[in-house]
Amino acid sequence: MTDLADFPVTQRWPARHPDRIQLYSFPTPNGVKASIALEETGLPYEAHRVTLSDTDVKSPEYLSLNPNNKIPAIIDPNGPGGQPLALFESGAILIYLAERSGMLLGDSPARRLEILQWLMFQMGGVGPMFGQLGYFFKFAGTQIEDPRPRDRYINEARRLLKVIEGALEGRDWIAGDYSIADIALAPWLRALEIYGAREVVGWADHPNCVRYLERFLARPSVQVGLNTPPREG
What we know:
The protein is α+β, with helices and mostly antiparallel strands. It has helices at about 10, 30-40, 55, 60-65, 90-100, 110-135, 150-165, 180-195, 200, 205-215, 220-225, and strands spanning about 20-25, 45-50, 75, 85-90.
């Protein structure tokens, strides 16, 4: 049996199936990237609910796995060379799972690079900008009277949506075939509804984006991944 005792995180979140990939996550737009990818690839895994509270993500056990105290993170007991591998950052996890499974990363070097291009677009643009939009439009940032931060992120979200809308013209998926780029991007488009920000960014004026998200949410693996691990323990 695989021994994960060298990973302190397993003391707080014990592995019932130590031979499987261990997922430490919560169903946020970033967190569900890993669970959806695991469902899509069919790689065996065990999910552990790590809430966003300081008692979880800033616990010594979790910080030993991800010193940046963010979800998701994984441990693969059968990593490169047959050795256990710990990994954090959702983009890195998506690339690893795609390479590990031989899926979702294109069938040629050129297609792989196109997929990685859109993955980085999400990681560097859509995620941070939409996240700030959520903060200033719905969460604690709404208490700030100065309208400039809120307006800045509304306008940037509109700009990014326009980029995505154009890229999806004549395509079902952002890089042609379904890939980790879609698994990264679509949950953040879904977040606009969670933030109550669809109207303010003109969501209905982007029909390609609307249909794209509908296609994504209709996938059975996505439906499972969006609720893994469950929000409530």
